[in-house]
């Protein structure tokens, strides 16, 4: 990776992946793009490096930027998440698949590598829920998952048919403190920390006992770079690798916070849409292929992440930044 372009850079992952890539490859080698230039996260990206306004569905403008900056690696982070997708499935398909198809086509024409995240959402009710294997039944019940499975197949197709170096991971819920996720099923595990720091009661939309895989953002950033730098000769799989760092359900994260903030309170008001999605996803994935093929090894668990999340968010809160 020498010259990198990120589409959808203003979102939860991009707002932290961009500075991470800038530190590794140099700010002059990272071009952040987003459909909106006027959001807080886009403005921050523009202050700290190269930023271009780009609608990833506009193939001509997308290709022009790839040519202009001599891009060799595209990170496609454009997506409507699982719960939002259910409100407008046609729009979710149009955005999620449109951005990916443009990324792959432009990568083919300009000989770029492509990273695009898949998700635990690619699995469904008929997938094994415990130690979900790398290769297994994938019949998701959400449009988000349908897009993810299609995207995995397309990534492998562009690799075998056109030689595009397409790679991907199935991310679990990502927990972070820079930019909030929006419209996902795993978002509760981010929002709960903000409520705890603000001294508010947290109303949990996910039922007690509903386990999902999760990961702290620093591990997610390391995974992306490690996979994209991996020796292609060692990759048996490409699109897409199971990776996980922890698996918990709402009462476990609540108890982890309460051990540090004993006054914190959580109640449940289960959202049936999110509950059904969560119950159709794995409880815990088997990520042994990622470990064997490119050395995946997470560093953060629920306890260390909870210490760090509370510390960082409390610091921002005390400075009036949130
Ligand atoms: N975080 C995503 C969601 O909840 C899963 O990939 O939709």
Fold blueprint:
Elements lengths: L3 E4 L6 H12 L4 E5 L5 H9 L1 E4 L5 H10 L4 E4 L5 H6 L1 H22 L2 E3 L2 E2 L10 E3 L10 H20 L3 E2 L1 E3 L1 E3 L12 H11 L3 E3 L7 E5 H13 L11 E2 L3 E3 L1 H9 L7 E3 L3 H9 L3 E2 L2 H7 L7 H17 L4
Parallel strand pairs: 1-2, 1-4, 2-3, 4-5, 5-8, 6-9, 7-16, 9-13, 10-12, 11-15
Antiparallel strand pairs: 12-14
The structure holds serine.
Report the mean per-residue pLDDT as an integer. 97
Query: CATH H-level name of the largest domain... which superfamily?
Result: NAD(P)-binding Rossmann-like Domain
Give the strand order, joined by hyphens, for the main sheet. 3-2-1-4-5-8
Under the CATH scheme, which class of the largest domain?
Answer: Alpha Beta
For the report, how would you describe the main beta sheet?
A: 6 strands, parallel
Overall morphology: globular
Oligomer: single chain
Say how many strands there are.
16
Cα radius of gyration in angstroms: 19 Å
Q: Compute the number of structural domains.
A: 2
Please estimate the helix content: 40-55%
Which structural class do the helices and strands define? alpha/beta
Number of helices: 12
> How much beta, percentage-wise?
15-25%
Q: Could you state the order of secondary-structure elements as H and E? A: EHEHEHEHHEEEHEEEHEEHEEHEHEHH
CATH architecture of the largest domain: 3-Layer(aba) Sandwich
Spatial separation of the terminal alpha carbons: 34 Å
């Amino acid at each position: 990776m020498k010259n990198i372009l990120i589409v959808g850079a203003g979102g939860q992952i991009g707002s932290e992946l961009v500075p991470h890539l800038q530190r590794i490859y140099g700010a002059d080698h990272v071009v952040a793009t987003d459909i909106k230039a006027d959001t807080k996260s886009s403005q921050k990206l523009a202050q700290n490096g190269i930023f271009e306004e780009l609608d990833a569905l506009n193939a001509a403008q997308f290709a022009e930027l790839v040519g202009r900056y001599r891009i060799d690696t595209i990170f496609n982070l454009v997506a409507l998440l699982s719960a939002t997708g259910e409100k407008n499935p046609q729009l979710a398909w149009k955005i999620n698949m449109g951005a990916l198809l443009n990324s792959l086509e432009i990568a083919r024409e300009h000989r770029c590598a492509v990273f695009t995240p898949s998700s635990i959402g690619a699995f469904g009710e008929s997938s094994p829920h415990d130690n979900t294997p790398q290769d297994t039944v994938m019949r998701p019940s959400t449009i988000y998952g349908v897009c993810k499975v299609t995207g995995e197949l397309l990534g492998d197709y562009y690799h075998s048919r056109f030689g595009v170096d397409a790679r991907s991971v199935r991310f679990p819920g990502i927990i972070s403190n820079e930019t909030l996720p929006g419209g996902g099923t795993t978002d509760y595990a981010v929002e709960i920390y903000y409520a705890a720091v603000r001294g508010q009661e947290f109303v949990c939309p996910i039922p007690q006992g509903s386990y999902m895989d999760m990961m702290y953002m620093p591990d997610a950033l390391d995974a992306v770079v490690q996979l994209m730098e991996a020796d292609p000769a060692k990759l048996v799989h490409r699109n897409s690798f199971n990776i996980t760092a922890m698996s918990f359900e709402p009462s476990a994260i609540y108890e982890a916070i309460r051990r540090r903030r004993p006054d914190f309170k959580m109640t449940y008001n289960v959202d049936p849409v999110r509950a059904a999605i969560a119950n159709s996803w794995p409880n815990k994935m088997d990520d042994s292929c990622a470990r064997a093929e490119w050395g995946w090894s997470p560093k953060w668990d629920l306890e260390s992440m909870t210490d760090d999340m509370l510390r960082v968010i409390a610091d921002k809160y005390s400075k009036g930044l949130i």
